[in-house]
Amino acid sequence: MLNGRIVAVLLFLVGCSTAGAASAQQRTLADNWNDYLHYAKIGNLDLAKGYAQAILQSDPDPVALLELVQANPTGYELAMRVVNTASDTDLVALTKKLLGVIDLGRFMRRSDPQVIVEEVRRLSGTVRARMNATTRLKNAGEYAIPFMLDALADPARRAEMDVIIETLPQIGRPAIRPLVAALQTQNSTVKAEIIRALGKIGYPQSLAYLRYVVENDPSAELRDLATQSIRLIDPRAVNTPAASLFFNLGERYYHHDESLAPQEGAPIANVWFWDEGTSRLERVEVAPVYFYELMSMRCCEWSLKADAQFGLSIGLWLAAFFKAESTGLPMPEYFGPNHAGALVYATTAGPEYLHQALARAISDRNAAVALGAVEALATNAGERSLLYAVGPVQPVLQALVFPDRAVRYSAAIAIANAGPRQGFNESGLVVRNLAEALAQGGTAAESSADWTPELADRYALRAAQAMLKVAVSRNPVIDLLQAQSALIAATHDNREQIQVLAGQILAYLNSPNAQRAIAEAALDGSASMDVRIAAFGSLANSAKMNGNLLPDATVARIYALTSSDQTEPDLRAAAAAAYGALNLPSQMVKTLILDQAKS
């Protein structure tokens, strides 16, 4: 027979009784946690799910749940086994949420300023107290550094300096990001200890910052200390310029090097700054999803501070910015409310750096970065700069075969708008992509997460406008005859603007099929009056440039419109202009004149 506790959970699961749900909510966190573990262990998965759900719905204190885990470490191991081996996907999902709450508890405890301040003071206590404090400060990681540096800078705490200096490098790799930010301090004593600590920690991500000290610090003593620390980490970097080292570090961040990951177990990541006003470290919480990109941008900024001519850092900065924006998240608060978007910087930067970003994106198959770079190039690049080579390749031409269609279409539109006059092997790809883009959207538009009907319509319109520009300029490189089928199909499109543009482009093609397609669009009684009038205008242009390429039957239909007093006046005038442009034999014009003559 079921006991009262099990009955309460069952009632909670099925939601059949308000009294049962209320009873379940009144259970203590410890009871629910222990019962979750018990039923997970014996394989009663439904009841285990009930207790897991009860814990989550009670909005538990993460630190309190962490304390329960620490009191019973085998329980945590059991929860991990549930995640890795349980066949019930709902239970796995609930358990992952519980583990997330536990991790949050760890983060809250180790980042608690009051706890950290007390542990820094305990470093000056007994040997046992120092050992325990060191362990806890290492667990706090980067969060401990501001308070340890505050103590070092405080003249009233001079007696604590030796033990803090001894402990500082023991924090290890998590200490590096706040420590290198703190190298901007004006306190030479503290700066010297930061430099020594970075050398003892021994990770290469410090090298660029130490080399910057060597190149820029006015103190010979600090420059010598920085050189010594560089030798401890990697003697080969002693003579490498800081700008190059920052660029290399930025690339490692860009490629999400695991050794540069944010501190584990936290729901956020930190970007560290030095506040000159308060002479303290300042941290800005950012979403982990774009932490690496933001740090890559910061490394590029430091590279340019070290050497304003180090142009490779501009291309990497642009790529990282586009990559960060692709997450869809707002940029962090330190960007400021009036910080421009990536495209503004990209169009300002110029083609050389955009090609660097584009080449990187093509190599990495990153559609967001490639699209941003191509769109910026479309704005500010002419033929020469657009077909720029990075090493042995031309990134824009590579973009014509990129897996993402938006990148391909944007590259083709950019090249067409640039109006190249020198032939290149990929010109056929330009036309192919323009034709494909033209066919997108309309009533047959497909939809997916990254390709909406609205986006398809925009690309179709941009492709048509680019092709018209090519046609009007009589471009000798981009052969629009290869897009004739797509253009003829577009004269029947459900979007009037596309219909009109297709007719205008076809007018420049010296092809009977092109001229006949324009005429059919003009004669189509189901089309709107505006489209038909525009089509007759295109037909007139086609006739002026290419002569009459129409069969007699089509000419007769145009004559019928022109000669009929039932034809709408504006349409009749447009048809007459086209008829005249066809430069027909005199007997046909004679018929038109005599038909209107009075006897």
Q: How big a fraction of the residues is strand? A: under 5%
* Contiguous helical run count: 33
Overall mean confidence score, pLDDT? 89
Shape: elongated
The total of beta strands comes to 2
Question: Could you tell me the radius of gyration in angstroms?
Answer: 36 Å
Biggest sheet strand order reads 1-2
Biggest pleated sheet: 2 strands, antiparallel
Global structural class: mainly alpha
CATH architecture verdict of one domain: Alpha Horseshoe
First-residue to last-residue Cα separation? 114 Å
Could you please say which CATH topology of one domain applies here? Leucine-rich Repeat Variant
CATH class identity of one domain: Mainly Alpha
Helix content: 55-70%
**Low-confidence blocks of residues:** 1-26
Describe the structure.
There is one protein chain. This protein has 599 residues and is an all-alpha fold. Among the domains are: 4-110, no CATH class; 113-306, Leucine-rich Repeat Variant. Helix content is 66%, strand content 2%. The chain is built from 33 helices and 2 strands. It has helices at 4-14, 18-25, 29-42, 45-57, 62-71, 73-85, 89-110, 113-122, 127-140, 145-153, 161-167, 176-181, 188-201, 207-216, 220-233, 242-254, 291-306, 312-325, 342-349, 351-364, 367-380, 383-386, 395-399, 405-418, 427-438, 453-472, 484-490, 496-506, 512-523, 529-546, 552-563, 569-581, 586-596; strands at residues 269-275, 280-286. It has a two-stranded antiparallel ribbon with strand order 1-2. β1 (269-275) and β2 form a beta hairpin. α24 (405-418) crosses α25. The radius of gyration is 36 Å and the shape is elongated. Residues 1-26 have low confidence and may be disordered.
